[in-house]
Structures are given as C-alpha cells and as structure tokens.
Amino acid sequence: xxxxxxxxxxxxxxxxxNGMAWIEAQLDSILTQENVNVTLYVSDxxxxxxxxxxxxxxxxxxxxxxxLPRVAKSxxxxxxxxxxxxxxxxxxxxxxxxxxxxxxxxxxxxxxxINLLNQQQAAAVSSNVMxxxxxxxERLIVKSQEQRKWDYIFESAGPGCSFLMTPWLVACVxxxxxxxxxxxxxxxxxxxxTYAVCRALGAKWVIDANPTLHYxxxxxxxxxxxxxxxxxxTRIIQLQRGLxxxxxxxxxEVCAMISKDPKHKFISRLxxxxxxxxxxxxxSFVSGARRSFIDRLVLAICxxxxxx
Length: 308
Hints:
alpha/beta, 2 domains, 4-stranded mixed sheet, 11 strands
C-alpha cells in the first residue's frame, strides 16, 4: 500500500497579504489534494488583518505548512512571489505550483496536472479557471486557445494560480531573478515571466481546457478575470499610458537574453521605442502575438492607431 512518502512531492508557493477572509478555505483545498505529497511555502507581505498570525498557528499543527520569516514589505504580489522563487529550495521536489490566497482548488487539481505534464513531456501546465463572484455568479475563463509563436511576449498562459511546473523551469526563472543584468525582477507579473522564460527556452507548455480551480473575484484582486466594462476600461487606460507596452518590452528583453532565436532581439528593439515605423513593423508579428483572435485584432488596431 502506498504511503504519502510514495506520492509525487509538490512544493506550493503562496503569496499572502491581508487574506484572512479567504485563506482558510484555500488552505483546506490545497492540503486535502489527493495522491500527492505537498509542502506549502507561504510568504506574507506585511498583513495587518491577522493572516500572518493565523499562518503561524497553522504551522504549529501541520508541518506541511512552512511560513517564511517576515522581511521588508515588497508591496506587490509579483515581488512577493519572486521572493518565494528566490528563497525556497525546490530542487528536491518533483513539481512546483503557484497558489493565490483566495481561490479554491478543485479536488484532484495537482494529480491531474502531474499526469498531463508527464503525458505531454512538458515543462509546465496551466489551465482554464472558473471565475466566481460573491453573488454566486460563475463564468469559465478560457485561456486554452491554441498557443501562438510569440504569444508569451504579449500575454501569460493564464492565472499563475493554475500553474504546475518542473523544478528545472523554476530554477530557470530563479536564475533570471538573480541576474542583475536581467529585466526579470522588474516584470510585474510572476506568471507572465514564468511562461515567457519557458517558451523562450524552447520548452513545452500545456494549457488544459479543464478548469482546475475556482478563481475568486473581489475588490482586492491584483489582476482578476478581466470581465465587465470597468475591467476593460482599465485595460484601455493601461494601453494609453504605455503600461502594457512597458511590460511587453521587459518580457521581450528577458527573452532576447535567454533565447537563441535572433528575432527576440528584433522584437525587443521594436517594443523598446515607440514610433510609427516600429509599430508598423510590429504589425507583422500580430498573427502570432496572442492566442485569442479578438485579442490579436485589438492589438493590431492599437498598433495602427498608435495606442500601443
């Protein structure tokens, strides 16, 4: 009979900040995952609502939960995750996953993703997610459209909370974060950076159409499901202010640094300086830029109108 020590070892990296309202349900959904041997590493970013103290109490009764010592407040979920990637030794695990503080994982999430990763001989797997709101509304968030040649420069594979990765990939991301000549540490979103590093190195990434978690939506979401008029208006403002282009440029610089494909350097040069000529040249990459046809169309229009 198999014991927990015979199951695949999964290191789960969770970033928390003032998550007391949701974290108990999320911890339960993680620690009750079947047929896996999990260790949950948590970095709290200066919570003042009792989250840190709650986690301290949990570590006293469940050795699978490891709370990292408090350090200076980073101020963002991305930087908090980068702290986890840098500081947690994951080499002796079989797999590594990211977790948010406020979702609820489907039972069997990890073992399903482990099996899929092995079947596809991939470096990572992510999935669609089921967004849900306090009023009970649910909506499937589809990220599993066919991957495009350059999509990782322009978007993530989906919410990082759905990611399962090999320790090799996490080590590659860690290497970039520790490299002072890399733009990696300045990329706002840890999930987007992880996806970009994987694809730029030529490794395989699988996006599962089956949702593996309930993606909680509330006022404190860092990114969220991007649904509704307000969310879309926020994205337009980010485009107009150049925030999205700036992130694309940082990602493209990381890719240019680690990839053997010389086109990465060309794309990095084009995204690094906004001009009509460079925008016209970027239009030639739009067909491979994002997985959704609508997103590709919007990007093409934004390039042509000099919004991006």
